[in-house]
Amino acid sequence: MNDDDTFGRNTTSRRGFLSVAAALGTVGIAGCGAPRSDASASATPANTGEGGSTEGTQQVEQVEEWSGSDSTAVETDHPYTTPRTTIDLDETDGAITMSTRACRHQLLGDESRGGPWELPEVWAWETPETDPSVPGPLLRVTEGTDLEITYDNTEHNRPHTFHVHGLSKSWMDDGVPTTTGRQVAPGEEYTYEITANQPGTHLYHCHYQTQNHLDMGMFGILRVDPEGYEAPDKEAFMTIKDWDTRLSASMAGGDVSFSHRDRNPDAFTVNGRCAPYTFHPERGSPLIVEEGDRVRIHYVNAGYESHAMHTHNHGFTVVEKDGGVIPESARHREDVVPIAPAERKTIEFTADADPGVYALHCHKVNHAMNGDTYPGGMIGGMVYESVTDTEQFASVMETAGYEV
């Protein structure tokens, strides 16, 4: 985790960029210059039950003309999130302990175009071995492994649960308080015993007061590889998400009110970042390919709106949906794929286009914006290694706040 309160511009060589991008292993253009409001110190809302309508009792006043960048001015002393890590559960015999920590989260870095832009409070997943992140750590395991997922709620002041899509499990390990009456209160822990019985890419999230907890960043990916899984040349996991920044600001004590009945997303992210920060090799998640690579991208929608993900200059086929393999006879060439809330789709293609820098973005074009500024938002990037010494590549990296 970065000990400083800001992330400055990084300078490195082309070789350094490639090594950093390779280490990430996963993958996404200008910012919001709206005025900011004054903000109060962080407040700690009171808890209510699973069926309650709100979680907080803080008194706030509505900002007359709220703009997304106003959230940056809400001051908290939380630590910053760090980029998502990957945890191989095969190496731990399926056992992991997870918890939640209140953090700040940068949508755009200080030196990226349009930055800084941040959410003053998110609820980030962490483990004893990894720093808090949004999305949470990528959990990867082989089919058939018995999982013991211990949720340790000693670092947060609200009840939480662990719920995962796609896997069959016992009733009491479903992680849904509404139907089980069970949640993990502050200061308590609970171990969910779940078998990785369905290969595929699955969403996990907190299911306590889901309208708030999912929207505050408590989501991640659990990938179950089938026995004998044949990995492609390049593989990326992309979590897409829409945010209404008023929720984060209100939870952090800002002078803004929020209702999910009036939710109006103003931030759109790939793996927790808005473009152009998505292209930053240390803070974002660009996908680096070589000519002829077989590429597989796993999309997971952790938001509340559907998104139409488009690949520039590369047709693909959808090979998996929600853990189900699409028969070859049903596959056909596409270049736009709709992904509904909580839906997972895996696409596959060959990197056989004219080498360059290509966008992978939502084609609801207002989702590819930061505030009123285009381009931005839900734009990921795919870069051919052979063009990383070009002026065009250097220009893209400059907008991301990364100097090659």
From TrEMBL:
Endoplasmic reticulum recorded as keyword: no
UniProt cross-references to InterPro entries, sorted A to Z: Cu-oxidase-like_N (IPR011707), Cu-oxidase_C (IPR011706), Cu-oxidase_fam (IPR045087), Cupredoxin (IPR008972), TAT_signal (IPR006311)
Gene3D superfamilies named among the record's database cross-references: Cupredoxins - blue copper proteins
Region described as Disordered: 30-87
PROSITE patterns for the chain: TAT
Domain Plastocyanin-like per the UniProt entry, residue ranges: 133-227, 275-371
GO molecular function: copper ion binding; oxidoreductase activity
Keyword Oxidoreductase: yes
Source domain of life: Archaea
Entries under Pfam families matching the protein: Cu-oxidase_2, Cu-oxidase_3
Keywords, in A-Z order: Copper, Metal-binding, Oxidoreductase
Protein name from the UniProt record: Multicopper oxidase
Native source species: Halorubrum aquaticum
Top-level taxonomy: Archaea, Methanobacteriati, Methanobacteriota, Stenosarchaea group, Halobacteria
